[in-house]
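Reopening this one. Same input as before:
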Amino acid sequence: MNKNIILAGVGGQGILTIASVIDHAALQTGLHIKQAEVHGMSQRGGEVQSHLRISSTVIHSDLIPLGQADLIISVEPLEALRYVPFLKPDGVIISATEPFINIGNYPNIDEVLQELQKFNCKLIAAAEIAQQLGNAKAYNLVLLGAASPYIGIEKSEIEYAIRTLFAAKGEEVVKSNIEAFNKGLELI
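Same output, byte for byte:
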């Protein structure tokens, strides 16, 4: 098993939480992982991205070469477009539809979404779904749920990782994050 995953978004959107959940799930199943993160101006709404490589054999580099990503998970649609050059021809993009407009010349969102649809892209109204579930902060876990069939790790292992990572915040937080993950999974 070899999976190359790009996680993309804007500071404060939970990219590093998605990476932590996947990392924990991969490690508990005995897989090898390498991860490289770029935080940029994350505390000021700037770009945040992570290269995440998972394999059943030893991984020698933590960076994903251009054209080698199996999956892009993006919590911001324009950020998904930024990383398209990394995507394999048969790769998949899972992206939120809601923009995070932090620049004055943000392009028309309909044009951004239309451009994403030129690829094997699943567009998810993640923020809207999380809001409906009563946990607006869990939109990153809605996206993780939608992406989970493409990661190559069993659903139960990802749920266990979510439970482990959020345990200190109490059972209600754990339940709501697992609910968001499962709602995302239902969308695919």
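So the earlier flakiness isn't reproducible anymore. For the record, The first helix runs from residue 15 to 28.
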